[in-house]
User: What shape does this take?
Amino acid sequence: SPRTLIVIVGVYAIASITQGLTDNAFVRVSGRIGQDVLLDLRERVFAHFQRLSLAFHEKYTSGRVISRLTSDVEALAELVNTGMQSLVWAALSLVSIGVLMFSLDVTLALVAWGTFPIVVGVTVWFRNESTRAYRAMTGLDGATSIRLPGDVGVVPSDTGFTTSDAHTTAP
Assistant: This one.
C-alpha cells in the first residue's frame, strides 16, 4: 500500500541522515584526536633528536635521519587519518556479516569462516614482505637524500649552456 511505502522511505531517509551525521561526527572527532597525537609525536621526536649526542649526528647523516623520520611520521599520519575509520568500519562489517551469515545458514557460515585462518596467514605474510620492502626503500630514499646534494654540487652550472666545436662541427 502507499502508506507502507511512505513509511519505509521515511525510515530509510531518517537512517541515511543519521548515518551521515554520525559519520561526520566520527570523522571530525577522530581527525582532531589524530592530529593531536601526531603533533605530540612530532614534538617528542624533535625533542629526542635534539637530545641525541654529537656522536650520533656524526654517525648518521642528516639525510638518512630526516628521510626515516619523515616517512615514519607520514605512515603514522596515514594510519591515524584514514586507518582508524577503516578499521572501525571493517570491524563493524565483519561482526554484522558474521551474525547475518550464521542466522541464515550455520553450515555455510562455518565453511566460509573456516577460510579465515588462511586469509589471516596470507595477510601476515604480506605485511612482513611489505615491511621489508618499505625498509629497503626508506634506506634508498635516505641514500638519495645524502648523495644528491653532493652530486649536484659537482656539476658546473654553465655546463648545460656551453657548446664546443666537437659538438657543433660536422664530421
